[in-house]
Design a protein that fits this description.
This protein is of the alpha/beta class. Helices cover 44% and strands 11% of the residues. Belongs to the mannitol dehydrogenase family. UxuB subfamily.
């Protein structure tokens, strides 16, 4: 990271840049307490920001973050952070277009696992590391989408379990480090998922303990008994960084950052206070520490994340390309709010301290923020994982209790139409989904077989056999094909 001579990339910050908030703490001597897998935009706008705030307050100097990349695509993050001494700019975008940059200094190291897996393992095995945190996406947990259980048939898992294998997956690397901690008497640590899944800690527990048990039964028992997996609810809209973001940072503030992060002003983190080897004082910087995170998780996943799915596919088909365009569209906004009020909210438990009507109104305001410029392609990425985790639990709850499903069925039909890989003008839609090779051919059969897509049981289970849902789905799909997304939305608003 460079500036017009006023921002140093060393460990001591001596001069600020006008309009840019920079660390006032000395980065020399900060030691790693957290090893984080999946250093992307969200991690750098969320956990890394909270740790930076503690460092700014003179706390948490033994809780610096070591980032780890395991995928080929993580090479670029390694190169950028290495060149910038781990520093980057976090740019908050206000609705009026105001930019508020903060240079974040909490990432003190970054390791690219394919280059040196042994170094990653030893970093986790080191007694100073007490938390392994994760933002590996919903699809990164090798779970069966219908049962929610660990799927050991994954090729990466099988490769890591082979005798004499050098670990390559996050699960192989972490479990090998846990085995060394157990052998050396170093003790357990906490594995803290920050991914958008209900019961993200419970999911992490199933996968890591399942992997450990396959490797060694006693190791699996030790992990299950000693390692903690707190559930959490994380929330901050963090769109993909665009070239225009880099240019605005350079032109307006004189900061040249290879990979800045942009985000909305809102941030929330609700976290179960269940740690095996201590934690930073997260509550000092706005984190809500609770005994039970489930009500907050359900609220966020079924209102924010599922509503993202509701606007993503149908909005794209209607010609929009950004979230705020859909949220500001007078034909779409009532549909989105009706989904939240009529179908999602009745599936929620009471949420302590939260006014749900106010929360939903705030969501609509956040979606409509034009400064964030969040793309529909981003929120439509990994559809099969996101629909499974965010929307289908609402559908199944409502079917079980006799509640309405017409709006949810329209969303699923919107995805099914989007998965045909052409929009309403016949232009191609790039499918960014791990199951695209299987789902797109099914979607393209829908003109003659309307339930072909819905019968894909690895995602939908037996939903195609439910007469009420299947009827609502096929009716929305019929309207989508005949009259388009706007008509399909109007029919259920």
């Amino acid at each position: 990271m460079q500036s017009q001579g006023s921002l140093e990339t060393g460990s001591v910050w001596t001069d600020g840049i006008p309009g840019v908030d920079v660390p006032g703490y000395d980065r020399d001597g900060i030691t790693t307490g957290i090893v984080h897998f999946g250093v992307g935009g969200f991690h750098r706008a969320h956990l890394a920001m909270y740790v930076d705030a503690l460092l700014e307050a003179g706390e948490a100097r033994d809780w610096g973050i070591c980032g780890v990349g395991v995928l080929d695509g993580d090479r670029r993050m390694q190169q950028v952070l290495d060149a910038q001494n781990g520093l980057y700019a976090l740019v908050r975008k206000e609705p009026d277009g105001t930019l508020s940059p903060r240079v974040i200094g909490s990432i003190v190291d970054y390791l690219f696992a394919p280059d040196d897996p042994e170094r990653v393992i030893e970093k986790i095995a080191d007694p100073s590391t007490r938390i392994v945190s994760l933002t590996i996406t919903e699809g990164g947990y090798v779970i069966d989408q219908v049962t929610g259980e660990f799927d050991p048939s994954d090729p990466g898992i099988q490769a890591d379990l082979a005798e004499g294998a050098v670990p390559r997956t996050v699960f192989g690397l972490v479990v090998e480090a846990l085995a060394r901690r157990r052998e050396r008497g170093t003790g357990p640590l906490t594995i803290m998922s920050c991914d958008n899944m209900q019961g993200n800690g419970d999911t992490a527990r199933r996968v890591f303990t399942g992997f450990a048990a396959l490797r060694d039964k006693e190791l699996g028992e030790w992990v299950a008994e000693s390692v903690t997996f707190p559930n959490s609810m994380v929330d901050r809209i963090t769109p993909a960084t665009a070239d225009s973001d880099r240019e605005a940072l350079a032109e307006r503030f004189g900061v040249h950052d290879g990979w800045p992060v942009v985000c909305e002003p809102f941030t929330q983190w609700v976290l179960e206070d269940h740690f095996a080897a201590g934690r930073p004082e997260f509550d000092r910087v706005g984190v809500q520490l609770v005994d039970d995170v489930v009500p907050y998780e359900m609220m966020k996943l079924r209102l924010l994340n599922a509503t993202h799915q509701a606007l993503g596919y149908l909005g794209y088909l209607a010609g929009h390309r950004y979230v705020h365009e859909v949220a500001q569209d007078p034909e779409f906004a009532p549909f989105l709010r009706a989904y939240m009020d009529v179908e999602a909210t009745p599936t929620l438990r009471p949420v302590p301290g939260i006014d749900l009507d106010e929360y939903k109104s705030t969501l609509m305001e956040r979606f409509a923020n034009p400064a964030v410029a969040d793309t529909l392609l981003r929120i439509n990425y990994g559809s099969s994982d996101r629909i499974s985790l965010f929307l289908l639990p609402v559908v199944r709850h409502q079917l079980e209790h006799g509640g309405p499903v017409e709006r949810s069925a329209a969303v699923v039909a919107g995805w099914a139409r989007y998965a045909e890989a052409t929009d309403e003008q016949g232009e191609p839609i790039q499918q960014q989904d791990r199951l695209a090779d299987e789902l797109t051919p099914l979607a393209q059969q829908q003109s003659t077989d309307p339930l072909a897509f819905l019968r894909y049981t690895p995602v939908f289970g037996n939903l195609a056999d439910d007469e009420r849902f299947a009827a609502a789905f096929t009716e929305s799909l019929r309207i989508l094909h005949a009259d388009g997304a706007r008509a399909a939305v109007a029919a259920v608003s």
